[in-house]
Protein backbone atom coordinates (compact mmCIF):
# COMPACT_ATOMS: atom_id res chain seq x y z
CA UNK A 1 0.00 0.00 0.00
CA UNK A 2 1.32 3.42 -0.96
CA UNK A 3 2.29 5.91 1.75
CA UNK A 4 1.54 8.73 -0.70
CA UNK A 5 -1.39 7.48 -2.77
CA UNK A 6 -2.48 10.96 -3.85
CA UNK A 7 0.84 11.88 -5.45
CA UNK A 8 1.03 11.76 -9.22
CA UNK A 9 3.68 12.90 -11.71
CA UNK A 10 4.50 16.51 -10.84
CA UNK A 11 3.23 19.32 -13.06
CA UNK A 12 6.83 20.43 -13.59
CA UNK A 13 7.69 17.07 -15.13
CA UNK A 14 4.47 17.04 -17.16
CA UNK A 15 4.99 20.53 -18.62
CA UNK A 16 8.67 19.99 -19.35
CA UNK A 17 7.86 16.73 -21.17
CA UNK A 18 5.15 18.51 -23.15
CA UNK A 19 7.67 21.20 -24.05
CA UNK A 20 9.93 18.53 -25.54
CA UNK A 21 7.09 16.66 -27.24
CA UNK A 22 5.73 19.79 -28.92
CA UNK A 23 9.09 21.54 -29.47
CA UNK A 24 7.92 24.35 -27.21
CA UNK A 25 9.92 26.99 -25.36
CA UNK A 26 10.21 25.89 -21.74
CA UNK A 27 9.37 28.74 -19.35
CA UNK A 28 7.88 26.31 -16.85
CA UNK A 29 10.64 24.76 -14.73
CA UNK A 30 12.71 27.12 -12.60
CA UNK A 31 16.19 26.70 -13.94
CA UNK A 32 18.45 28.95 -16.06
CA UNK A 33 19.32 27.98 -19.63
CA UNK A 34 22.45 30.11 -19.82
CA UNK A 35 26.01 28.96 -18.94
CA UNK A 36 27.53 29.15 -15.49
CA UNK A 37 30.26 31.70 -14.88
CA UNK A 38 33.42 30.62 -16.72
CA UNK A 39 35.39 31.39 -13.56
CA UNK A 40 33.33 28.79 -11.73
CA UNK A 41 33.86 26.31 -14.55
CA UNK A 42 37.62 26.88 -14.38
CA UNK A 43 37.69 26.42 -10.60
CA UNK A 44 35.77 23.16 -10.98
CA UNK A 45 38.14 21.86 -13.67
CA UNK A 46 41.13 22.68 -11.48
CA UNK A 47 39.68 21.09 -8.35
CA UNK A 48 38.64 17.96 -10.24
CA UNK A 49 42.34 17.14 -10.50
CA UNK A 50 42.94 17.59 -6.79
CA UNK A 51 42.15 15.48 -3.75
CA UNK A 52 38.56 16.56 -3.00
CA UNK A 53 36.71 13.42 -4.01
CA UNK A 54 36.10 11.64 -0.71
CA UNK A 55 33.46 12.22 1.97
CA UNK A 56 33.45 15.61 3.60
CA UNK A 57 32.56 15.87 7.29
CA UNK A 58 28.87 15.14 7.78
CA UNK A 59 27.85 18.76 8.34
CA UNK A 60 29.79 20.08 5.37
CA UNK A 61 33.11 21.12 3.85
CA UNK A 62 34.76 23.13 6.67
CA UNK A 63 36.13 25.93 4.49
CA UNK A 64 32.75 26.44 2.81
CA UNK A 65 31.01 26.47 6.17
CA UNK A 66 33.29 29.23 7.39
CA UNK A 67 32.53 31.27 4.26
CA UNK A 68 28.77 30.78 4.66
CA UNK A 69 29.08 32.06 8.22
CA UNK A 70 30.95 35.08 6.88
CA UNK A 71 28.32 35.61 4.16
CA UNK A 72 25.54 35.43 6.75
CA UNK A 73 27.30 38.08 8.84
CA UNK A 74 27.85 40.33 5.82
CA UNK A 75 24.32 39.99 4.48
CA UNK A 76 22.31 39.95 7.71
CA UNK A 77 24.67 41.00 10.54
CA UNK A 78 24.03 37.65 12.20
CA UNK A 79 26.98 35.84 13.75
CA UNK A 80 26.58 32.07 13.63
CA UNK A 81 28.81 29.26 14.80
CA UNK A 82 29.45 27.16 11.67
CA UNK A 83 30.18 24.07 13.77
CA UNK A 84 26.85 24.05 15.62
CA UNK A 85 24.39 26.29 13.74
CA UNK A 86 25.00 25.41 10.08
CA UNK A 87 24.40 22.39 7.84
CA UNK A 88 25.23 21.99 4.15
CA UNK A 89 22.56 19.94 2.42
CA UNK A 90 21.76 18.20 -0.87
CA UNK A 91 19.82 21.22 -2.07
CA UNK A 92 17.34 23.24 -0.04
CA UNK A 93 14.79 20.47 -0.61
CA UNK A 94 16.83 18.10 1.54
CA UNK A 95 17.18 20.81 4.19
CA UNK A 96 13.40 21.19 4.26
CA UNK A 97 12.80 17.43 4.31
CA UNK A 98 15.33 16.79 7.07
CA UNK A 99 13.97 19.67 9.15
CA UNK A 100 10.39 18.44 9.01
CA UNK A 101 11.34 14.82 9.63
CA UNK A 102 13.47 15.83 12.61
CA UNK A 103 11.12 18.25 14.33
CA UNK A 104 7.55 17.27 13.41
CA UNK A 105 5.93 14.37 15.28
CA UNK A 106 2.91 12.18 14.64
CA UNK A 107 -0.28 14.14 15.22
CA UNK A 108 1.37 17.56 14.91
CA UNK A 109 0.05 20.19 12.52
CA UNK A 110 2.15 22.22 10.09
CA UNK A 111 0.85 25.43 8.52
CA UNK A 112 1.64 25.89 4.82
CA UNK A 113 0.86 29.25 3.23
CA UNK A 114 -0.71 28.70 -0.19
CA UNK A 115 0.18 28.96 -3.01
CA UNK A 116 3.22 26.96 -2.01
CA UNK A 117 6.00 24.91 -3.54
CA UNK A 118 5.28 21.19 -3.67
CA UNK A 119 8.13 19.91 -1.48
CA UNK A 120 6.57 20.96 1.84
CA UNK A 121 3.63 18.60 2.18
CA UNK A 122 5.24 15.20 1.57
CA UNK A 123 7.65 15.14 4.54
CA UNK A 124 4.77 16.26 6.76
CA UNK A 125 2.66 13.31 5.63
CA UNK A 126 5.61 10.95 6.05
CA UNK A 127 5.87 12.20 9.64
CA UNK A 128 2.25 11.14 10.13
CA UNK A 129 1.46 14.79 10.80
CA UNK A 130 -1.22 17.02 9.31
CA UNK A 131 -0.51 19.71 6.70
CA UNK A 132 -2.83 22.69 7.20
CA UNK A 133 -3.09 24.80 4.05
CA UNK A 134 -3.77 28.50 4.68
CA UNK A 135 -4.36 30.72 1.65
CA UNK A 136 -2.54 33.99 1.21
CA UNK A 137 -4.49 36.99 -0.02
CA UNK A 138 -5.03 37.31 -3.77
CA UNK A 139 -2.07 39.70 -3.95
CA UNK A 140 -0.02 37.00 -2.13
CA UNK A 141 0.38 39.01 1.06
CA UNK A 142 -0.13 37.08 4.33
CA UNK A 143 -3.65 36.89 5.73
CA UNK A 144 -2.97 37.03 9.46
CA UNK A 145 -6.61 36.54 10.37
CA UNK A 146 -6.55 33.17 8.60
CA UNK A 147 -3.15 32.26 10.03
CA UNK A 148 -4.29 33.08 13.56
CA UNK A 149 -7.47 31.04 13.05
CA UNK A 150 -5.47 27.93 12.17
CA UNK A 151 -2.80 28.22 14.86
CA UNK A 152 -3.52 25.89 17.77
CA UNK A 153 -1.79 23.87 20.50
CA UNK A 154 -1.30 21.18 17.85
CA UNK A 155 0.70 23.49 15.58
CA UNK A 156 4.37 22.52 15.56
CA UNK A 157 5.66 24.43 12.56
CA UNK A 158 4.81 27.33 10.26
CA UNK A 159 6.45 27.35 6.82
CA UNK A 160 7.29 30.73 5.31
CA UNK A 161 8.66 31.21 1.78
CA UNK A 162 10.19 34.62 1.12
CA UNK A 163 10.85 35.75 -1.62
CA UNK A 164 7.84 33.74 -2.66
CA UNK A 165 7.58 31.05 -5.30
CA UNK A 166 5.40 31.15 -7.37
CA UNK A 167 4.31 34.79 -6.99
CA UNK A 168 7.53 36.77 -6.63
CA UNK A 169 6.02 38.55 -3.60
CA UNK A 170 8.23 39.60 -0.67
CA UNK A 171 7.29 40.18 2.95
CA UNK A 172 7.64 43.73 4.30
CA UNK A 173 8.67 45.00 7.73
CA UNK A 174 5.08 45.53 8.89
CA UNK A 175 4.19 41.93 8.06
CA UNK A 176 7.14 40.55 9.99
CA UNK A 177 6.17 42.61 13.03
CA UNK A 178 2.64 41.25 12.80
CA UNK A 179 3.99 37.70 12.54
CA UNK A 180 6.20 38.24 15.56
CA UNK A 181 3.30 39.58 17.60
CA UNK A 182 1.15 36.62 16.59
CA UNK A 183 3.77 33.98 17.36
CA UNK A 184 4.41 35.47 20.79
CA UNK A 185 1.06 33.89 21.70
CA UNK A 186 2.34 30.49 20.53
CA UNK A 187 5.84 30.16 21.99
CA UNK A 188 6.19 26.49 21.05
CA UNK A 189 5.57 26.98 17.32
CA UNK A 190 8.71 26.70 15.20
CA UNK A 191 9.33 28.55 11.93
CA UNK A 192 10.78 27.05 8.76
CA UNK A 193 11.83 29.94 6.54
CA UNK A 194 12.51 28.95 2.93
CA UNK A 195 14.71 31.77 1.60
CA UNK A 196 16.23 30.17 -1.48
CA UNK A 197 15.64 33.30 -3.60
CA UNK A 198 17.10 35.61 -0.95
CA UNK A 199 19.59 37.28 -3.30
CA UNK A 200 17.10 37.66 -6.14
CA UNK A 201 15.27 40.70 -4.75
CA UNK A 202 14.69 43.84 -6.76
CA UNK A 203 13.43 47.29 -5.70
CA UNK A 204 13.20 46.36 -2.01
CA UNK A 205 15.77 44.45 0.02
CA UNK A 206 14.87 40.95 1.12
CA UNK A 207 14.11 40.78 4.85
CA UNK A 208 15.57 37.56 6.19
CA UNK A 209 14.49 35.81 9.35
CA UNK A 210 18.23 35.92 10.09
CA UNK A 211 17.65 39.59 10.96
CA UNK A 212 14.64 39.01 13.24
CA UNK A 213 15.75 38.60 16.83
CA UNK A 214 12.25 37.65 17.96
CA UNK A 215 12.09 34.80 15.44
CA UNK A 216 15.52 33.36 14.76
CA UNK A 217 15.79 31.49 18.07
CA UNK A 218 12.87 29.32 16.88
CA UNK A 219 13.66 29.28 13.15
CA UNK A 220 15.34 27.02 10.64
CA UNK A 221 16.36 29.06 7.58
CA UNK A 222 17.10 27.34 4.27
CA UNK A 223 19.16 28.73 1.40
CA UNK A 224 20.28 27.52 -2.02
CA UNK A 225 23.52 27.98 -3.92
CA UNK A 226 21.67 26.40 -6.84
CA UNK A 227 19.47 29.51 -7.05
CA UNK A 228 22.05 32.10 -6.00
CA UNK A 229 24.80 30.88 -8.33
CA UNK A 230 22.46 29.39 -11.00
CA UNK A 231 23.89 25.92 -10.38
CA UNK A 232 20.58 24.14 -9.87
CA UNK A 233 21.89 20.74 -10.94
CA UNK A 234 24.60 20.77 -8.30
CA UNK A 235 21.96 20.52 -5.55
CA UNK A 236 23.91 22.34 -2.85
CA UNK A 237 21.91 24.15 -0.19
CA UNK A 238 22.30 24.93 3.47
CA UNK A 239 20.36 25.53 6.65
CA UNK A 240 20.97 27.90 9.55
CA UNK A 241 19.38 27.24 12.96
CA UNK A 242 20.15 27.58 16.66
CA UNK A 243 22.15 24.66 18.04
CA UNK A 244 19.28 22.95 19.87
CA UNK A 245 17.31 22.68 16.61
CA UNK A 246 20.25 22.03 14.32
CA UNK A 247 21.34 19.10 16.48
CA UNK A 248 18.06 17.34 15.64
CA UNK A 249 18.16 18.19 11.92
CA UNK A 250 21.68 16.82 11.65
CA UNK A 251 20.49 13.48 13.02
CA UNK A 252 18.17 13.03 10.04
CA UNK A 253 20.68 14.45 7.55
CA UNK A 254 23.30 11.93 8.73
CA UNK A 255 21.13 8.98 7.75
CA UNK A 256 19.47 10.60 4.74
CA UNK A 257 22.57 11.56 2.73
CA UNK A 258 25.37 11.73 5.36
CA UNK A 259 27.32 14.33 3.36
CA UNK A 260 26.86 16.08 0.02
CA UNK A 261 28.97 16.38 -3.13
CA UNK A 262 32.54 17.18 -2.13
CA UNK A 263 33.73 18.65 -5.45
CA UNK A 264 30.75 21.01 -5.65
CA UNK A 265 31.29 22.21 -2.07
CA UNK A 266 34.98 22.84 -2.68
CA UNK A 267 34.31 24.70 -5.93
CA UNK A 268 31.66 26.94 -4.36
CA UNK A 269 34.00 27.64 -1.46
CA UNK A 270 36.73 28.91 -3.80
CA UNK A 271 34.25 30.79 -5.97
CA UNK A 272 32.85 32.77 -3.04
CA UNK A 273 36.28 34.40 -2.71
CA UNK A 274 35.83 36.16 -6.07
CA UNK A 275 32.05 36.36 -6.47
CA UNK A 276 30.08 39.55 -5.89
CA UNK A 277 26.81 38.39 -4.36
CA UNK A 278 25.09 41.67 -5.29
CA UNK A 279 25.51 40.84 -8.98
CA UNK A 280 22.77 38.19 -8.70
CA UNK A 281 20.12 40.88 -8.21
CA UNK A 282 21.45 42.88 -11.17
CA UNK A 283 21.38 39.93 -13.56
CA UNK A 284 17.82 38.91 -12.75
CA UNK A 285 16.40 42.41 -12.49
CA UNK A 286 17.62 43.03 -16.04
CA UNK A 287 15.95 39.80 -17.15
CA UNK A 288 12.71 40.64 -15.35
CA UNK A 289 12.58 44.10 -16.92
CA UNK A 290 13.45 42.72 -20.34
CA UNK A 291 10.72 40.08 -20.15
CA UNK A 292 8.12 42.50 -18.78
CA UNK A 293 8.85 44.92 -21.61
CA UNK A 294 8.42 42.13 -24.17
CA UNK A 295 5.10 41.14 -22.59
CA UNK A 296 3.60 44.65 -22.68
CA UNK A 297 2.14 44.07 -26.12
CA UNK A 298 0.53 40.75 -25.21
CA UNK A 299 -2.96 40.28 -23.80
CA UNK A 300 -1.65 39.08 -20.43
CA UNK A 301 -1.88 41.16 -17.28
CA UNK A 302 1.41 40.97 -15.41
CA UNK A 303 1.34 40.99 -11.62
CA UNK A 304 4.11 42.66 -9.59
CA UNK A 305 7.37 40.69 -9.37
CA UNK A 306 9.38 41.83 -6.36
CA UNK A 307 11.85 38.94 -6.27
CA UNK A 308 12.66 35.40 -7.56
CA UNK A 309 12.93 34.68 -11.28
CA UNK A 310 9.22 34.04 -11.75
CA UNK A 311 6.60 36.26 -13.34
CA UNK A 312 2.92 35.62 -12.63
CA UNK A 313 0.41 36.69 -15.27
CA UNK A 314 -3.36 36.73 -15.41
CA UNK A 315 -5.04 35.48 -18.59
CA UNK A 316 -8.57 36.53 -17.58
CA UNK A 317 -8.72 38.84 -20.58
CA UNK A 318 -7.90 35.97 -22.92
CA UNK A 319 -9.80 32.88 -21.81
CA UNK A 320 -12.17 31.41 -19.23
CA UNK A 321 -10.46 28.00 -19.40
CA UNK A 322 -9.07 26.40 -16.27
CA UNK A 323 -5.43 27.32 -15.78
CA UNK A 324 -4.39 23.70 -16.37
CA UNK A 325 -6.24 23.52 -19.70
CA UNK A 326 -4.93 26.94 -20.67
CA UNK A 327 -1.29 26.02 -20.03
CA UNK A 328 -1.66 22.81 -22.00
CA UNK A 329 -3.13 24.77 -24.90
CA UNK A 330 -0.25 27.23 -24.71
CA UNK A 331 2.13 24.35 -25.32
CA UNK A 332 0.21 22.56 -28.05
CA UNK A 333 -1.01 25.59 -30.03
CA UNK A 334 1.51 28.35 -29.27
CA UNK A 335 4.68 26.48 -28.31
CA UNK A 336 5.30 27.97 -24.86
CA UNK A 337 5.38 25.91 -21.66
CA UNK A 338 4.34 27.53 -18.36
CA UNK A 339 2.96 26.45 -14.98
CA UNK A 340 -0.67 26.84 -13.79
CA UNK A 341 -0.88 28.40 -10.34
CA UNK A 342 -3.72 26.19 -9.13
CA UNK A 343 -1.26 23.33 -8.58
CA UNK A 344 0.38 25.34 -5.80
CA UNK A 345 -2.84 25.32 -3.75
CA UNK A 346 -4.07 22.46 -1.60
CA UNK A 347 -7.62 23.11 -2.83
CA UNK A 348 -6.59 23.87 -6.45
CA UNK A 349 -7.73 27.50 -6.27
CA UNK A 350 -7.91 28.77 -9.85
CA UNK A 351 -7.47 32.53 -10.23
CA UNK A 352 -6.75 32.27 -13.99
CA UNK A 353 -3.05 32.87 -13.46
CA UNK A 354 0.10 31.20 -14.76
CA UNK A 355 3.78 31.39 -13.89
CA UNK A 356 6.61 32.15 -16.31
CA UNK A 357 10.27 31.55 -15.50
CA UNK A 358 12.40 34.36 -16.95
CA UNK A 359 15.77 32.83 -15.98
CA UNK A 360 16.49 32.36 -19.65
CA UNK A 361 18.70 34.00 -22.25
CA UNK A 362 17.32 36.99 -24.15
CA UNK A 363 16.82 35.03 -27.36
CA UNK A 364 14.61 32.47 -25.61
CA UNK A 365 12.52 35.17 -23.90
CA UNK A 366 12.14 37.09 -27.16
CA UNK A 367 10.97 34.03 -29.09
CA UNK A 368 8.51 33.14 -26.34
CA UNK A 369 7.03 36.65 -26.34
CA UNK A 370 6.66 36.56 -30.12
CA UNK A 371 4.57 33.41 -29.81
CA UNK A 372 2.51 34.79 -26.92
CA UNK A 373 1.66 37.89 -28.97
CA UNK A 374 -0.51 35.66 -31.14
CA UNK A 375 -2.89 35.05 -28.20
CA UNK A 376 -5.92 37.32 -28.34
Task: Supply the key terms.
alpha/beta, 13 strands, 376 residues
Describe this structure in words.
The protein is α/β, with parallel strands linked by helices. It has 13 helices and 13 strands. Strands 2-8-7-6-5-3-4 form a seven-stranded mixed beta sheet, with helices on both faces. The chain has a four-stranded antiparallel beta sheet with strand order 9-10-13-12. Strands 1-11 form a two-stranded parallel sheet. Strand 3 (109-114), helix 5 (121-126) and strand 4 (130-135) form a beta-alpha-beta unit. Helix 4 crosses helix 9. The longest helix is centred in the C-terminal third of the chain and has 17 residues, at 279-295. The N and C termini lie far apart (47 Å). The mean pLDDT is 96.
